[in-house]
Structures are given as structure tokens and as C-alpha cells.
Fold this protein.
Amino acid sequence: MSKVSALYPGSFDPPTNGHLDLIERGAKIFEELVVGILRNSEKSPMFSLAERLEMLKTLTAHLKNVRIEAFHGLMVEYAKSIDATCVLRGIRAVSDYEYELQMALMNRKLEPTLETVFMMPADKYSYVSSRLVREVAQIGGPVKGLVPEVVEQKLREKLEPAYKFHDEMQEATARSASGKEKKKRKKKV
Ligand code: PNS
């Protein structure tokens, strides 16, 4: 097989364990893998481009054939500019397929020489998405195991009031439950 340079494009807002799993798998089969973070993927991303670049660089420091970059404009044009001949995308479930197929075919129309390759992350990450991680974290919920520790830490820093409120509510619920339990026991005696 000839040596292939691939581009793994995405928003990575924030990077999840599923993304990292796919990067590690991609790094094994491609000679070079560029993780391309789309600028302005959403009007107001949770993490700035600089933060996403920093997190992904830290998370992939052990992978010598992986490079983290930012891009804007058409993905196929960026792929061409870095001499990538392949685009890597992850498919978690059937629900991803329709959107990914549409995107792959549109990209093929735009640049017929660029091939899209789909890989599956480990099944334990098949329900993990950046959108759901943001949703859970914004309410101060636990995201342990869904994102790497550095990302979890960044989420805690960014959403400190939400986490504080959530932790206080949990403590209050626990206190009230143990109070009720004590009363129950007293009545019995
Ligand atoms: O992580 P995401 O948000 O699913 O990634 C989507 C991404 C960045 C791969 C896609 O939106 C993209 O390639 N955007 C760049 C603009 C472009 O080329 N659009 C045409 C796609 S068919």
C-alpha cells in the first residue's frame, strides 16, 4: 500500500475520548495524520480555537505522525493544500451515516481525487459526542470517562458556577435524604 497522508477534520468543541480513539486508530494506518480544527464552526463555540489547538496538541503529543492545525473555508481545498489524499471521519452509529454520506459525496463532487475513509471508535464511545458533553457539563454533570482528563479539567474551570451549583444541590439532596432516614428510624424506636 502506498503511503497516505490523511486529514481528520472536525470542530472538536471539545475533543472527546471518541475523537482521541479515532486519532490513535488513524495514526496507526496513515503515514501522516493532520487533525484539522475548523475555525468558526459555530457562532459561539464553547472553546476558542486556541484552546482546542492546545488541548489536542497535549492529547496527541505521544503520536509522532500526528499534527494539529486549524483551517477555514472548504475542507477539500485545505486537504489539497497540505497534500492529504484521504479524509478520515468517524461513524459511531447508523444515525451518523446519513450526514456523513452526504458530506463525503459532496466532498467527492468538489474534489474527486480525495477519498473519505470511515472508521469506528471503540464501542464504549459510540454514544459520546461533543454536543452531549457540552450539554451535560453546562448543567455541572459528570463527564468523567467521556473526555480526556485535561478536557474535563478545562470544562470544570470554564463552567465552575454550574459545577458548584450542581455539587451543592447533590449535597443538599444527600443531607435531606439522610435526615428523612434518621426521622424514620426514630419513629420506629
Ligand atoms: O466535527 P464536525 O462539526 O462534525 O465537523 C464538520 C466538518 C468540520 C468536517 C465540516 O463541517 C467541514 O468540513 N466544514 C468545512 C466547510 C466545508 O468544506 N463544507 C462542505 C462540507 S460537505
Q: What stands out?
A: The helical segments are 17-29, 49-59, 75-81, 94-110, 130-138, 149-158, 160-188. Strands lie at 5-10, 32-38, 66-71, 86-90, 115-119.
